[in-house]
């Protein structure tokens, strides 16, 4: 493969260029209720070329090798067009070229497992909720994505890396009259098919929650002290804080950049946050990012003080900060952008019981339903929750969405638990999808959270 | 190429269909009124569906370099036993909406950059807010052939320019988009609208939690529409999980509200004469004067319900993705809400106390199928006695659309591009707003 890529790069006349070719395999098995609605394994491929010329940096994604020459011309023209319009030429942080072919270690390679077996395993999990009468339907989806990446740069990098992501995820819908409740379920990860085996308990547990939600009452809108479980703490860390640790999101947003100064005391002094794509056996693992930069454990917040940031080569140079290896693409259709790998709040000492006692009266919120951020404001949902009365969880509540201000909430995290759980399936849609986006944390206690209710 | 594949598939299956897509697109973006990026893409792809002995097979590729392998992938997928009891349609003489303006071919990235720059220059000096502008142009060529003899193709052109004025410390923005089949200068009145709205909300307002008037701008109406799309989707009707199952021909929304799908309306880009299964498109009522009129289907779920496809089988997903990799699925993507009688400023002037939802956070979250929504305001503008008094922070609007949409008070007299269609602003009464107070 590198021969063809070298030949394309040799046609580029620029200060720097890189090209990534990817072959992407996708295996899908989908059940809607009892019925199998999709099954198949397919392969797609494509190229992404990036060119830095006279201070302008531009990219083009193309499908066919025969379009390479036209793509080279377009990327060069676009880079020159940028260079004519920008006052400060783009620079890339220095990076020595690397040559490596990296294969992740897997507990059972899903590529060696037959499609029949994948189908049967998915069916088996799908059948767990469907045994029960109050379950109206399910969507259960086996998704296996393999990315074989080949990266070549004009600085001599020549890196091949495979990323293999497997998951079985879906939605369990319960129904009582016109009331419908949905619970998400997801298992899997990035280190092998074995992670998908023996997970019946997870499907049983989520099925039971789907029933219980039919009887739960909608939470009342208001301001609460809350305990967030690791899934909720993880999505807070990702949505509210993590995105603003991504240098490309704040680079040209002066008011955000001013707040996110390294050294600023942004959080409560008990708060430590790290992003580490090199954590073995976690969903967000990779060795090299899509600029050929090795991934690095990056401390983002140390006892409430902002200590680091996630970078691409371009932003590391622009901010004068160290490279972190966080510039990642969804696949061959996109140039890479800055993404989180495995981001988490570091655990401390308190047990869940102790956190609930400290809340006294409030809410215990579990399992995120996705979230969104707009800078200082964020919103995300919880699958379910419990009212905490006198330090103990009591009745179940549903229809929970919370909103808040990032900076205020970082200060309002007043206690951190002693457990740490990282997510097993993910999906962050920052313009492109990242199925390996992993987040987590321990249980945490947050004061004064606005809950939207219903 | 495609014909040869169809012929090969025809030899081993009962029916076959090939869908191909080619797309060229270029985009330029300005952040804080400075050029940030220019990116291009040139993609192609193809998918194959086959039906054999009542089973459905599916495969796709980006490069049709190996027909045998693609056909084999589709044949392999038959083994799972996905039901394929429907027939691919024979569609001839579809109405061809006017989807292509040839001038898009010569629209250069230089013009995109200059137009973005011009918009920045017209706005930036008049506001303290950060100005972000992005523009793109795209050319899409689509073709569907099947073994019944259907051979349909279309070429579409699209141009879009989005302008945002951001509130300090956030990506919350007053936003509006221009869309067309060809390059157009962004009208001055749109820029003035953005400036007026932003500058009126310059200070911070702190309303108390409670029920009040809530005005969704066209850009946030999709929050409500997504829930309606879900509840009227043929898949959810077939699976008996829609809260609207038994509500056909009943009045479920305020009488002022009509909502229809019209892929044939070619005043806007992306009009379609046929869906992604080669079924002819039609103007299609979902809600007529508040009354539920139709659920929408593709071939698969139509067959399940014993009715024909309504022409709503699209290869799309909520989160983008590779089009050719998706199987067709019921989708409403050309929605219109007819305009009402009042201008936006008149609507605001009737609000005694309320919020304007100018941006929604978390519209994808919550129990969508049940109609529930609970969104962060990003931004929300607080109105008192008919006047915008400031921006509301840390606030949520929440409800259930089957309650909220009964409370429509006023509809704007103009339509604007929103996600999934063209919508006017809509004012509702007595909706829950939660704030820090």
Give the gist of this structure.
The complex is a heterodimer of chains A (454) and B (437). With 454 residues, chain A is α+β, with helices and mostly antiparallel strands.
Walk me through the structure:
The complex is a heterodimer of chains A (454) and B (437). With 454 residues, chain A is α+β, with helices and mostly antiparallel strands. In chain A, 22% of the residues lie in helices and 41% in strands. Chain A is built from 10 helices and 25 strands. The radius of gyration of chain A is 23 Å and the shape is globular. Chain B has 437 residues and is α+β, with helices and mostly antiparallel strands. Chain B contains 9 helices and 24 strands. Chain B has helices at residues 2-12, 67-78, 109-123, 188-200, 222-232, 234-238, 299-305, 344-349, 401-404; strands spanning 15-31, 34-52, 55-61, 130-146, 151-166, 173-180, 204-205, 210-216, 259-261, 284-288, 291-292, 313-314, 329-330, 335-336, 353-357, 360-361, 372-377, 380-384, 387-392, 396-400, 408-411, 416-418, 421-423, 426-434. Chain B is globular and about 70 Å long. The N and C termini of chain B lie far apart (65 Å). Chains A and B meet through β1, β2, β3, α2 and α3 of A and β2, β3, α2, α3 and β17 of B. β3 of chain A pairs parallel with β2 (34-52) of chain B, so a sheet runs across the interface.
How do the helices and strands line up, and which of them pair or pack?
The complex is a heterodimer of chains A (454) and B (437).
Chain A: H1 2-9, E1 16-32, E2 35-53, E3 56-62, H2 68-85, E4 99-102, H3 115-130, E5 135-153, E6 158-176, E7 179-189, H4 200-215, E8 217-218, E9 222-228, H5 230-241, H6 247-250, H7 254-259, E10 273-275, E11 298-302, E12 305-306, H8 313-319, E13 327-328, E14 337-338, E15 342-345, H9 352-359, E16 362-373, E17 377-389, E18 392-398, E19 400-405, H10 406-412, E20 413-416, E21 421-422, E22 428-430, E23 432-434, E24 438-441, E25 444-451
Helix pairs in contact in A: 3-4
Chain B: H1 2-12, E1 15-31, E2 34-52, E3 55-61, H2 67-78, H3 109-123, E4 130-146, E5 151-166, E6 173-180, H4 188-200, E7 204-205, E8 210-216, H5 222-232, H6 234-238, E9 259-261, E10 284-288, E11 291-292, H7 299-305, E12 313-314, E13 329-330, E14 335-336, H8 344-349, E15 353-357, E16 360-361, E17 372-377, E18 380-384, E19 387-392, E20 396-400, H9 401-404, E21 408-411, E22 416-418, E23 421-423, E24 426-434
Parallel strand pairs in B: 7-19, 8-15, 14-23
Antiparallel strand pairs in B: 1-2, 1-4, 2-3, 4-5, 5-6, 8-24, 9-10, 9-14, 10-11, 12-13, 15-18, 16-17, 17-20, 18-19, 20-24, 21-24, 22-23
